[in-house]
Amino acid sequence: MGVPLLDLPAQYRELQSEIDAAMHDVMSTAGFIGGPKVKALEEAIAAYCGTSHAVGCGNGTDALILILEAMGIGEGDEVITSPFTFFATAESISQVGATPVFADIERDTYNIDATLVEAAITERTKAIMPVHIFGQCADMDAINAIARKHGLKVIEDACQAIGATYRDKRAGALGDAAAFSFFPSKNLGGAGDGGILTTDDADLAARARKLGNHGTAKKYFHDALGHNSRLDALQAAILSVKLPHLDRWNEERRTAAAVYDELLADLPLTVPVRRAYGEPVYHLYIVRTPEAPRVMEALKAAGIGTAIYYPRSLHLQEVYADLGYALGSLPEAEAAESETFAIPCFPGITREQQEEVARVLREALS
């Protein structure tokens, strides 16, 4: 029995009639850019996350860039972030002319270690950008306290964490602004690229919206250099159909995670740790073993989807060689990159499928 890492076609089949009707509505009116579909999604995402504003844009990377630019962060500034994340996190900082500064991660959650953040602050630091990696929020109380102490902004990279909670709030409402991705594989995914940013700051939202629309708030009149980064109405229409199902899908991921916790409990394998401060959404179910390469080969041979997230930490990427980091600089991130991998965990996965994954893991680790 093969088991995919993610089953996106099944999600489409579940909602096919609604999605097709929403797309037909956009096509029949030719309202492809902006308009009521995008506005409706922005309002729905803001309400869902518990923020005053949401601004659609081209993708999650652009959401981070627009936040940074709207905050006035650029050349000569530094932003502290995690080295164990998708490249876009640090890339967004570099794209605005600022410098990413990396603080190591917690060994068990893979989130940035808040106890190491303050030591990374310099007179050039302007913001902290925690990543809610794999769908679990970082320790935001600690991070926000450090930010307040030093007068810094907090930008959530929540691209993997829509619906995750921290205390009594959702990801997206835990800092000064947050970025989400609607890449197809995300918990709330579109049929292509898409992104959105959330904030309670009306001025920041207005600046970000202008910067994402060629630096104009009035057509053909420009008072800033911006970008062409707008959320397509087709994507907004699809996402609006999916959003009401997000909490159910996230709960199905949690249920699947609990099944794995049970099935893998006696194996020499580290399973995800859940912090008491909130509910994760298990964008990925990451397991850990020093024998990761061999175990992954066994999974692949059995037709079971698996992947490494991430094979090289950002501080060791060639493009950042001039930042001065060396092997051993951030040992937890470096250890994680060689020992962790994802196994199938998605809405609709059956216990039978999970038992097959567990069986192959058991054989590989015996």
User: H/E series, N to C?
Assistant: HHEHEHEEHEEEEEHHHEHHEH
In what range is the share of β-strand residues? 5-15%
First-residue to last-residue Cα separation: 20 Å
Counting H and I runs of at least 4 residues, what is the number of helices? 11
Query: Do you know the CATH topology of the largest domain?
Result: Aspartate Aminotransferase, domain 2
CATH level-4 homologous superfamily of the largest domain: Type I PLP-dependent aspartate aminotransferase-like (Major domain)
Number of domains: 2
Q: Assign a percent range to the helix content.
A: 25-40%
Mean pLDDT: 97
Tell me about the largest β-sheet: 7 strands, mixed
User: What structural class results from the helix and strand content?
Assistant: alpha/beta
How many DSSP-defined strands? 11
For the record, the CATH architecture of the largest domain stands as: 3-Layer(aba) Sandwich
Strand order of the largest sheet: 1-9-8-5-4-2-3
Shape: globular
